[in-house]
Amino acid sequence: MDNYNSGNELKPTITVIIPCYNAETTIERTLDSLSKQTYRSFELLIINDGSKDNSNKIIESYLKNSNFNYRYIDQKNAGVSIARNVGLANARGRFITFLDADDIYHPYFLEILSEAVTIDDIDTAYCCYSRNVEKLLNDTRVKPERKNVHKDRKSLMLSFMYRRGPCAFFSFIYKKSILENNNITFTENSKYGEDLEFTWKYLTHCEKGSFVDIPLYGYYNNPTSVMNNITWRVTDALCSVKRVEDYLEFNNIEFYYTYHNYMFDRTLLALLKDFSKFGRRDLFLKLITKFDTKDSMRSLVNKSPNYLVKLSALIFCMNQKLFYHIIKKIHHKRT
Questions:
Q1: Structure confidence by residue, pLDDT tens digits, 32-42
Q2: Taking the model in full, what pTM does it have?
Q3: Which fold has domain 2-226?
Q4: Structural domain boundaries of the chain?
């Protein structure tokens, strides 16, 4: 099923892509955040990826009573990467942004990021995200001041790699022309890390960008999401890291060496933490058996500019069992 409402006949400046799967409890709030956008030259492209709950009814009802310029595609379940690629293939906007079906945009998200890329004539801009979803959604203050930090490609990549400011693939705005000219899409059948892989490939072709140092994306920690149902499949993220390495090397990007010397080890640490957080000692031990995790953690102690990363890696090197129980305990206290 494919529903379309052209709304304003003019070609939209931005396409907002929302993949949706079993999001009946959150999708209305997500769409509310788009209704509140101060910037209106956008189209919504929502792909219902074979939801088995009431998502379809809620979406159809909401869109019917909205003034969105939208296209709604209801397809058989194929996975989030394919759903996002369907969105890319159907996007009409000059720029692309992504919004998950349980997250929200600050009312000025589209306005501030679109200003950053158009006024400053750059290839991308990205903002911080916040886990305080309700605060961002209901922020009625005047427009936040745009605090831009301009960066060249190397600075963009360093900032993204070390996560200077909480950011992720969904907090970026992308030029459609760069995506199309370089055939950048989401790797299908990869369940973890494919979103960061997408952004890394995009940054490879950016000459300059801007970091907007304010939280404009609301990230909801959904207890039913894939990241909260840990299996060995999360190690797909290591494959994504390797694909990015190959991509950087193929394109003769000097940053390849920096990425190669850090990201695989950093991803191993993230996996060790995830398995510890959710009490998967079996997967924790399996990871230690399959990879030289101790050597990787030693490397992070020496190379990471982040104090907490260094400390976590150091504790692992000293006592793996202690690392596991500390991370698990910290996570349980926060939840």
A1: 999 999 999 99
A2: 0.92
A3: Spore Coat Polysaccharide Biosynthesis Protein SpsA; Chain A (3.90.550)
A4: 2-226, 261-334
